[in-house]
Amino acid sequence: MNAWDERAEAYRTSVTHATGEDLDAVVELCNPHQGVKVLDVATGGGHVARRLREHGAQVVTADASPGMQPDVVTRAEHLPFADGSIDVVVTRIAPHHFENVGAAVGEMARVSNRVVVIEDMLYRSEEEQEAEKLRDPTHVRSLSAEEWRELLVDAGLEVEQELYFSKVHDFDDWLARVGCEGEAAKRVRELLAQYTSEDGRSWSNDYIVVKARKSQK
Ligand SMILES: C[S@@+](CC[C@H](N)C(=O)[O-])C[C@H]1O[C@@H](n2cnc3c(N)ncnc32)[C@H](O)[C@@H]1O
């Protein structure tokens, strides 16, 4: 069992993942309705897929970890779907885990015939990246808004809409979710000092949601 499979239940029940204005926005930008075919890449606890299905969309879930119980076990960097075979391809709060985010965005653009929607935490500082990696070694890197725009355009997509959100994380819950404790937890708190609340109980980070459209060239 890999690190992700062990965490499947934690992601299914995580409030940060299961709810939020960001999730509402991602769902809205996918414009789900009867007959629309959506691929949810790195579905994790399946929160995006669940919400889209409630609107009648036909959703296929994909994830690299069998423990997440996706419809298709696959890495985002290699999607086993034909070119243009899916209307909307979405991925939420996952690209910072991808080993090759450029390849993943290229694959999402290739299999989509219409729209790609991504949400991820934004790059703000090296301290924040170090803290994220120390807490969770599966964190590869977050991108800035500029880097996101560049990646999407390079993949042949036109950016149509960008939205921004902040989330507050209770330190104890956030560290416990991935079993980060002791000296490592202490160092993570130090590295995130500039983003920490006055009472020291929580910290906040920023998220970008982008809707991009397949260029009609
Ligand atoms: C934070 S969870 C995703 C949250 C979920 N999308 C949501 O909205 O609640 C990250 C997921 O990314 C998956 N993952 C990590 N690297 C991946 C990769 N290269 N390709 C596909 N999935 C990957 C993990 O297995 C995990 O399920």
Chain-wise SSE layout:
Elements lengths: L2 H11 L1 H4 L2 H10 L6 E5 L5 H8 L3 E6 L8 E2 L12 E7 L8 H11 E10 L4 H10 L9 H10 L2 E14 H6 L5 H10 L10 E13 L3
Parallel strand pairs: 1-2, 1-4, 2-3, 4-5
Antiparallel strand pairs: 5-7, 6-7
Helix pairs in contact: 3-4, 6-9
This protein binds S-adenosylmethionine (SAM).
The site of S-adenosylmethionine has 22 residues, from helix 1 and helix 4.
Give a description of the structure.
This protein is α/β, with parallel strands linked by helices. It has one domain: Vaccinia Virus protein VP39 (Rossmann fold). Helix content is 37%, strand content 26%. The protein is built from nine helices and seven strands; from the N terminus they run H-H-H-E-H-E-E-E-H-E-H-H-E-H-H-E. The protein has a seven-stranded mixed beta sheet. Helix 5 links the parallel strand 4 and strand 5. Helix 3 packs across helix 4. The longest helix is centred in the first third of the chain and has 11 residues. It starts with a helix and ends with a strand. The mean pLDDT is 95. Bound molecules: S-adenosylmethionine (SAM). S-adenosylmethionine binds next to helix 1 and helix 4.
